[in-house]
Amino acid sequence: MLCVPAAGLNAFLAVSGARRTEEVTVPMDETPASYGDTGGAAAWPAAGPSRVPAWIFSDPALFQRERTAIFRGPSWNYIALACEVPEPGDFKRSWVADMPVIAARDADGGVNVFVNRCAHRGVEFCRTVRGNATEFMCPYHQWTYNLKGDLTAVPFRKGFRRQGGMPADFRLEDHALEKLRVTERNGAIFATFDAATEPFEDYLGDAMLRYFDRVFDGRALRVLGYMRQVVPANWKLYFDNQKDPYHATLLHYFLISFGLFRASEPSFVRMDAQGRHSALISQKGEQGVIAGGDEMKHNDPRLKLAGPQMLQPVREFKGADTVVIQTIWPGLIVQQQSNTLAMRHVIPRGPGAYELAWTFFGYADDDAAMTERRLMQANLMGPAGYVSVDDSEVVAFAQDGLAPYDASVGVVEMDGREVNEADTLVAEGAVRGFYAHYRRVMGL
Amino acid sequence: MTPEDFRQLSPAVLRYEIDTLTAAYVHALDDAALERWPDFFTEDCLYKVIPRENYENGLPLAIWYCRGRGMLQDRVTAIRETQLFAPRALRHVTGNTLVQGWDDGALRTVTNYAVYESTLDRTSEVFNVGRYLDRIVAEDGRLKYAEKLCVFDTSVVPTSLIHPI
Questions:
Q1: Residue A311 pLDDT > 60
Q2: Which of A41, A54, A347, B1 is most open to solvent, judged by the fewest CB atoms within 10 Å of its CB?
Q3: Mean pLDDT, range A345-367, rounded to an integer
Q4: Looking at beta carbons, which residues of chain A come within 8 Å of B68?
């Protein structure tokens, strides 16, 4: 064991006084070479993406930098489904990271995304989840904006009885709401703060775009409902969890115990060229029991569903894939688990918590039986899902172990130390891809 | 109690019977006697835990959706045998039951509830607040829920909902 070098520690404490000083010891081979001058944060371990330092999950200054570098940077952020705002005047509150925004459809039929923050004094003026409006007025001083986010009226702009009023050179057009660039792909709306963000199709890349278009194939969508939860863990732990198939055969006892999922099912990990997006893919066979070969300990022959009506999936997408969980950097998971389709929007709430906003949907032409299937299978997902609760609980456990031990380092070596795709579940290559990209964007 | 007896109860006795049923139900949950939970329902019951947002906008999605007692039993089995979750104790407080009237042999009632959650290392917190929309029938000599919709106001679920409401 080796103490962190005094000089490095001092540099570190200068910007983060709340850190513990007494027990900052880490194994020698895990020790960061130097905390150095990395904008006030500690450096990444020299081993690269097969090591993940704990401090990135709790550092408040780093969280502020993530807002700027990632969420205000060259990223396409999920905002809404187009079918949630079908008519002119329809709007929806949403978020980019924890920054409130509004998606509004204007009279021309286009969707605009702008900040939910009055240009005057910063009030989050829209407090309605969804609705229809002709304009937005801030309640504080009644500054009024149109559906494109342009400022249209300022009360007492010319003063009252020749007193007060804005300076003569005040121009409404200088004080629009901050606007994001918007893109829509087959019914899903994304927005970016950065003028340089590449087109969405290039952003995803061919392989990831094919998985995206598999669900968003141009058919009209219909929202089935929402679920929201707040988990006391850093947002990256959830995104990482959704790129980690290694845990699927071990943590999710429900699927395994009831014989609903087996490690022997063909499974794949795919990524874009930069490793920022990924897809975890499973192909369930049509046969019943697959004998032998499983390393999972929990398959329990006693357990059988007393209400098998919950899981009566039908194959609805072309090809052999039955489950595709796609992560789209930096804050979206597109879920296709048999017949449940959902957008999982990750909304960081400071370094120590994230909200997960689930929008379940189907297609406008689904028959009643298909809708029922989707609603039934939703029992697996969400804040009360047979499968999803394991993830929410375990990432909260992870936060409790990581935050106090913020000089510790995690090991991510399953199936190698590089950013690599896999044809197996026992792989962490996409997790490494996530952190490798995170480091590039954050300059760590 | 037969269905006919149930129909003939005086308002005061009817209220007493409903309050007794509600108390037995929440104590079964709070005392972690989960194995008894499905017995409060009819064989072909409907049980849902629904965000108010979905309920009031006519969106069909629930975070728990059970059709038939078997699906309730599966939830109990999963809680006992398969699901990972931090240790916790839940306590329900109910009140303000409104008897709304008869509907196809079932009594419709609405009851407010609050569920408090006590976990390791933290103080107790309000976990979920909402109302029960119930359809109650007499079956096998006792009162049971043919339908229980737990419509909750709480806009975000704290971490996860493991146990029935």
A1: yes
A2: B1
A3: 98
A4: 307, 309
State the Cα–Cα distance between residues A108 and A88, nearest whole angstrom: 8
In sequence order, the β-bridge partners of residue A182 are A191
Residues A26 and A84 in one domain: no
Q: Is A309 on the interface with B (CB under 8 A)?
A: yes
Q: Give the type of residue at A127.
A: R
pLDDT digits (tens, 9 = 90+) for A57-102: 999 999 999 999 999 999 999 999 999 999 999 999 999 999 999 9
In a domain, A97, yes or no: yes
The reported pLDDT for the residue numbered B26 is 97
Is the ipTM higher than 0.95? The answer is: yes
Coil, helix or strand at residue A269? strand
Same domain? A275 vs A322 = yes
Residue spans of the domains in chain B: they are 3-152
Q: Mark which residues 371-400 of A lie under 8 Å from B by CB.
A: 371, 375-376, 378-379, 382-386, 388-390, 392-394, 396-397
Under the banding of pLDDT at 50, 70 and 90, the label for residue B60 is very high
Q: What gap in Å lies between CA B118 and CA A176, rounded to an integer?
A: 47
Q: Which helix (H) or strand (E) holds A227?
A: strand A221-231
A122: domain CATH number is 2.102.10.10
Q: Which residues of A touch B83 (CB under 8 A)?
A: 253-254, 386, 389-390
Please spell the DSSP secondary structure of A290-346, one letter per residue.
Answer: PPS----S---TT---S-GGG------SSSS--EEEEEETTTEEEEEETTEEEEEEE
Q: Which two tokens stand for residue A101?
A: 């925004």
Is any Cβ of chain B less than 8 angstroms from the Cβ of A129? yes
> What is the distance between the alpha carbons of residues A316 and A225, in angstroms, rounded to a whole number?
21
**Residue A365 has what pLDDT?**
97
Same domain, A302 and A352: yes
Q: Using CA atoms, how far apart are residues B41 and A326, in angstroms rounded to an integer?
A: 39
Which residue in the set A225, A379, A392 is minimally distant from B159, CB to CB?
A392
Domain that holds residue A21: 2-43
How many structural domains comprise chain A? 3
Q: Which fold has domain B3-152?
A: Nuclear Transport Factor 2; Chain: A, (3.10.450)
Statement to judge: residues A364 and A418 lie in one domain: yes
CA nearest to B80 within chain A? A254
Q: Say what the pLDDT of residue A4 is.
A: 33
Note whether residue A281 is domain-resident: yes
Please check the confidence at residue A8 and state whether its pLDDT lies above 70. no
Residue A48 lies in a domain: no
The interface residues of chain A toward chain B in range 258-287, judged by CB-CB distance below 8 A, are: 258
pLDDT per position as a tens digit, A118-150: 999 999 999 999 999 999 999 999 999 999 999
**Residue among B28, B36, B24 at smallest CA distance from B73:** B36
Residue of chain B whose alpha carbon sits nearest to that of A131: B57
Average pLDDT score, chain A: 89
Hey, are the CB atoms on A383 and B86 less than 8 Å from each other?
no
Nearest to A228 among B64, B71, B155 (CB): B155
- CB B61 to CB A378 under 8 A? yes
User: Does residue A230 belong to the interface with chain B, where contact is any CB pair within 8 Å?
Assistant: yes
Judge whether A95 and A54 are in contact, CB under 8 Å.
Answer: no
In a domain, A214, yes or no: no
Please give the angle made by the CA atoms of A263, A266 and A270, to the nearest 5 degrees.
110
Which pair of tokens denotes residue A296? 């999972």
